[in-house]
Specification:
861 residues, alpha/beta, Rossmann fold, 7% strand, globular, HTH_77, TPR-like_helical_dom_sf, ATPase, DUF4062
């Protein structure tokens, strides 16, 4: 007879008042797991009921049936073995135990992977996964299982046994109420829990406020940190939910209810609460304080009256009390690597997998879906609520399909679990909850900043929103305190940003704003002005500084260009010419090509000067990405304009473009004449360092190819000196690799290696794929000279693979030398040997290719 059948009235509980948890599994293969589960059960002051603990004289079947009849909860552990089948039975004891436990709450844990799972167990697991109501979890190791069991049992007890005759009696309404029990496991927050707990333990810290955007996990973190403090505080920890509070006085009333203070005899709730708490050590967790920050004065007074009280608050805005220590809760860490192991070990991905398994028991991270899961987590910026909503969709969509839908609308994430607060059922509700707390001016600035891409400066925000500096500073500070804007402290200064999941919804409000068109125009004008300001610095001594500055605004600049293309293309030819040094050095050429191609059909309608700027940009961009036909077509249209160009820089730059495109038709002597003419003109222009160095590099490369070695050495050293003087990695590295080429053709391989080693390291800091591949191709020439044809083919393939993935081709003047080298290597290795080494190199990542280049011997396969 089961315990619930013994007595139909009130249950007379034993003195220990412990619930019994029956543990079902095969004994041999899961012995460590059984031991861990027993410890987890005992840690919750429950009693594990296990076959091996006694009743040896009785038949096994009678033992487990008797034990089950006296248990309150069933825990099943399964891995690969179906288990023992007794005499006269059609199913194993393992399956029989699960069936007999039907009236009990059933928690099932399946170890994964299980490459040798027996078919009958596989069938049982499938049926359990489809059964309801059954909690079904996958686990990988003992530690994960132990945590899952503790979390799930605690959650089950809070839901099922909080009241009624079959559980411990309800807690008194006087005295501290228990902390809420998490409904799901807390993933990826160990460091944050330790940091918050450390703050709470400091005697000089009385108030810690966890801030952050909605859905970042402030409440879960607060509960976890408070739980770590319970034992030391002898249970004097109170959780005060304030999501429903709308008036400041409700905060003290809420605290009073949770700590058992009597409000009947006083008009001052803070006095009643202080009297109840006295001088004892207490931790009060005030959750969702943002909409009643007006209660800050009462909170401060309570801290003064009760020296033993520490407060842990969660809020989207700080309270601005002197005692306050803010702890901004960060999103979960995102995948940095590309391997399955690196992706799986990332907290954001671990959370996704955990929540996906809650709705699809057989969900697993695999080589096939890991990339999509990683990209989902990146798109959702590690925001726990967004990840949980996305993972819940795996019930219907695999990660790749979900990622496709996410590119269309964040609403595709749907709604969360029914036991989530209403304001967190969707991301939209979470953001709107925060926005509704703003005043009109704050809301107006927030909507204006939705036009920015990848962040903004405070000055840019003021310019776009039409505010003065003081107004912008004050309103930005308010939005930061509401956790709707985040601050990044960079080498270029402070930048503001919104989580993209937040910005998407704010952008909808911007679209409905009557000033939306004006905001977008001011945004475009601001970044056009910034680009114009960069013109001379990009060509002179401050190039590196301005390339970095424009890189920080790359998304905003692209958005501005798109706006002008759609509404007013007049400024674009000049803008393109100005931005080209930045575009070429930071791998934005494919985007630039798309912009140029959209505007190019209008070239003949433009005045001569903007037409020349547009055609110049078209020629040099097409040359960089290897479209010879387009480059030559733009050159043919640019050349007739040269005699009438009266701007010295544009004229010299156009001559250099002539040189670059002359190499495409094999006219190396003509190209050299044009490069030298451009160099002479640049040298007459003050501070035109980029043009001077670029022309010297072009001349030096052509002189190397045509056998003019002394002239080449002179020009390449001049370019290198400019690069070093300007601390310009791109110029310095390009000159070094060309000097290395010169050393090779002069029969000096040791000198070439030293130059190329330095060039390759510098090229990595220049962020230019074209430059890195130039180094790799030259290393391939060096390997051939050193008698390592297989290594040379590998490096040549690595250069080709990186170029192809970036949409680039080798420079025209260097194509013939590379083709000749490939021919020699094919002859030395045979067609199969060359193709195999080349293909292996083409598959290398940039770090792998760089490591292979630095190796003196053949790299391991």
């Amino acid at each position: 007879m089961g315990r619930t059948e013994e007595w139909s009235g009130s249950v007379i509980r034993t003195p220990d008042q412990r619930l019994r948890v029956f543990v079902s599994s095969t004994l041999g293969e899961l012995a460590p797991e059984r031991a861990a589960v027993a410890q987890a059960i005992e840690a919750l002051r429950l009693t594990p009921v296990m076959f091996e603990t006694g009743a040896r004289p009785h038949p096994p079947r009678e033992v487990y049936r008797a034990y089950l009849a006296q248990s309150d909860i069933f825990v099943g552990l399964y891995w690969q073995q179906y288990g023992w089948i007794g005499t006269g039975m059609d199913i194993s004891g393992l399956e029989d135990e699960f069936a007999l436990a039907g009236p009990l709450p059933r928690l099932v844990y399946v170890k994964d992977p299980a490459p040798e799972r027996e078919p009958r167990l596989a069938d049982l697991v499938d049926r359990i996964g489809a059964a309801a109501p059954v909690s079904f979890r996958l686990f990988r190791d003992v530690a994960e299982l132990s945590q899952l069991v503790r979390d799930d049992l605690a959650s089950l007890l809070s839901r099922r046994f909080a009241a009624g005759g079959s559980a411990a009696p309800e807690p008194s309404t006087r005295g501290p109420q228990p902390l809420p029990v998490g409904r799901t496991s807390l993933v990826g927050r160990e460091q944050a829990i330790a940091e918050v707990t450390g703050l709470l333990a400091r005697p000089d810290v009385r108030l810690v406020t966890l801030t952050g955007p909605g859905g970042v996990g402030k409440t879960r973190l607060a509960i976890a940190a408070a739980g770590r403090c319970q034992e030391e505080l002898a249970g004097r920890v109170a959780f005060v939910p304030l999501a429903a509070a709308t008036e400041p006085e409700q905060v003290m009333n809420g605290i009073a209810r949770q700590v058992g203070a009597d409000l009947g005899g006083t008009a001052e709730p803070v006095t009643a609460v202080a009297g109840q708490l006295g001088d004892e050590q207490w931790l009060l967790v005030l959750d969702n304080l943002e909409q009643v920050v007006g209660a800050a004065a009462d909170v401060g007074e309570l801290l003064v009256r009760c020296p033993g009280v520490t407060i842990l608050a969660t809020s989207r805005t700080v309270l601005e009390l002197r005692a306050e220590r803010e702890y901004p809760v960060p999103p979960l860490s995102l995948p940095a690597g590309a391997s399955l192991a690196e992706i799986a070990d990332t907290p954001a991905v671990a959370l996704f997998v955990d929540r996906a398994r809650a709705v699809r028991y057989d969900f697993a991270l695999t080589q096939r879906n890991a990339g999509a899961v990683a990209e989902l987590c990146r798109r959702l910026e590690g925001l726990p609520l967004a990840i949980e909503l996305a993972a819940a969709r795996t019930r219907l969509l695999d990660p790749a399909a979900l990622l496709d839908r996410l590119t269309t609308s964040l609403d595709s994430l749907g709604t969360g679990a029914l036991d989530l607060p209403e304001r967190q059922r969707t991301l939209r509700a979470t953001v709107e909850w925060s926005v509704d707390l703003l005043d009109d001016q704050e809301r107006s600035l927030l909507e204006a900043t939705a036009v920015f891409v990848d962040g903004w400066t405070i000055a840019a925000a003021g310019d776009v929103a039409g505010l003065n500096e003081d107004e912008t500073l004050d309103l930005t500070d308010a939005l930061v305190r509401h956790s709707l804007i985040l601050l990044d402290h960079t080498e270029l200064g402070i930048r503001c940003r919104m989580l993209e999941t937040v910005r998407t919804f704010i952008a909808e409000r911007l679209a409905a704003s009557p000033d939306a068109d004006g905001i977008r125009r001011r945004h475009a004008d601001h970044f056009q002005a910034l680009a114009r300001q960069a013109d001379r610095p990009l060509r002179g001594a401050r190039q590196l500084e301005w390339v970095d500055r424009l890189q920080a605004e790359a998304g905003n600049i692209a958005a501005a260009v798109r706006w002008y293309l759609a509404h007013d293309p007049t400024p674009l030819p000049h803008l393109f010419r100005v931005l080209w040094p930045f575009w070429s050095q930071r791998d934005h050429l494919n985007e630039a090509r798309a912009f140029v191609d959209q505007l190019l059909p209008t070239a003949d309608t433009l005045a001569p000067h903007p037409r020349a700027e547009l055609l110049w940009t078209a020629a040099v961009t097409a040359r960089e990405i290897g479209d010879d036909r387009a480059a030559l077509a733009a050159r043919d249209r640019l050349e007739p304009l040269l005699p009438d160009l009266d701007e010295p820089y544009l004229h010299a730059a156009s001559l250099l473009a002539m040189a670059w495109t002359s190499t495409m038709v094999g006219d190396l002597d003509g190209a050299l004449r044009e490069a030298l003419a451009a160099l002479a003109e640049f040298r007459t222009q003050q501070d035109e360092f980029l043009g001077t160095a670029s022309a010297a590099l072009t001349a030096g490369s052509l002189e190397t190819t045509t056998g003019r070695y002394e002239e080449a050495l002179h020009h390449l050293r001049d370019a290198h000196d400019i690069g070093v003087r300007l601390d310009n990695a791109w110029l310095a590295a390009t000159s070094l690799v060309l000097l290395g080429t010169l050393a090779l053709v002069r029969g000096r391989p040791d000198e070439a290696r030293a130059l190329l080693d330095e060039a390759l390291d510098l090229s990595l800091s220049a962020y230019s794929t074209q430059l890195v591949t130039l180094c790799l191709a030259t290393f391939a020439q060096l390997a051939a000279v050193e008698g390592s044809p297989a290594r040379a083919a590998l490096l040549l393939g690595a250069a080709d693979g990186l170029r192809r993935r970036a949409g680039l081709r080798v420079y025209p003047s260097l194509r013939r030398p590379e083709e000749a080298l490939a021919g020699r290597l094919r002859e030395a290795l045979g067609a199969g040997g060359f193709d195999g080494a080349f293909a292996e190199g083409a598959g290398l990542t940039r770090p792998q290719a760089v490591a292979a280049a630095h190796e003196r011997d053949a790299p391991p396969s």
